[in-house]
Design a protein that fits this description.
This protein has 249 residues and is an alpha+beta fold. Helices cover 18% and strands 38% of the residues. Strands 9-10-11-12-1-2-4-6-7-8-13 form an 11-stranded mixed sheet. Strands 3-5 form a two-stranded antiparallel ribbon.
Length: 249
């Protein structure tokens, strides 16, 4: 039986043009075996309730009461029949009831633990959500995957170009890299990484007290970095309409 875990590590971001701009912050995230949790809930995972740290299904997918059911319906619609193993969700928790999740990753495994699909779930600060579906014979841990950028995230980046994804998992450590290339080449390098440990009441308390306002800090830091970019006179682009389709394949 797979068990819920918590990852403690860092978020890194670097902008290459037209001004160099970089930052990194300590962070933590949940690493949840959603199918195993369906049969055996984790005592330390405050699910759909109140608490210092919690996980709410409605923060994902279509906003319903069962995020895994949404994910499985999506896989069925996309005719992905071989994702019959575990479904791992890498995501921020709610902290003191507040959630903002810039990106979450659904890793859908086959029975042999290889990757059948990855869903990259992106939220922006305008309350919009979009998903990128990665699939195909080249999908694997450590291999680069690409998708056209169609969803507005930052007013300092046009909605153009492509994302390059790379996911690594080894020896209790997870790394998710998302780089953005525009028409002129590499523009942004970002990553979220962390060392995993079992999610227990003790590990959850330790993560909370290390950063007791994590999700509020995420939003505050987004606006602080936006101010720094504005002061550097990085061009600002108005928000376009969101894509008509919720899923980009």
């Amino acid at each position: 039986m797979n068990t819920a875990q918590i990852g403690r590590g860092q978020v890194r971001h670097r902008r290459l043009r037209p001004r160099d701009h970089a930052f990194d912050y300590a962070s933590y995230f949940l690493w949840l075996p959603m199918r195993s949790l369906r049969g055996q809930p984790c005592a330390a995972l405050n699910r759909n309730g109140r608490g210092w740290l919690s996980f709410h299904d409605a923060d994902h997918g279509a906003g319903g009461a069962d995020a895994l059911a949404w994910l499985e319906a999506l896989l069925a619609t996309e005719c992905i029949a071989d994702a019959d193993g575990e479904v791992w969700l890498q995501t921020y928790p709610r902290v003191l009831g507040y959630a903002f999740k810039p990106v979450s990753f659904w890793f859908c495994e086959r029975a042999d633990s290889s990757l059948a699909a990855v869903i990259v779930e992106v939220n922006n600060t305008f309350g919009e959500r979009h998903c990128y579906l990665l699939r195909g014979p080249e999908l694997a841990w450590g291999r680069e995957q690409q998708a056209a950028k169609v969803f507005h995230v930052s007013p300092f980046c046009r909605v153009e170009g492509r994302y390059r994804f790379r996911f690594m998992r080894a020896e209790g450590r997870i790394v998710a890299r998302v780089d953005h290339d525009d028409a002129h080449g590499p523009l942004l390098h970002t990553s979220l990484s962390g060392h995993l440990q079992a999610l227990t009441h003790r590990s959850a308390r330790a993560a909370f007290f290390a950063m007791p306002a994590l999700t509020l800090m995420v939003v505050a830091r987004i606006h602080w970095q936006a101010l720094r970019l504005a002061l550097k006179r990085v061009p600002f682009f108005s928000k376009p309409q969101p894509p008509e389709r919720f899923i980009t394949r």
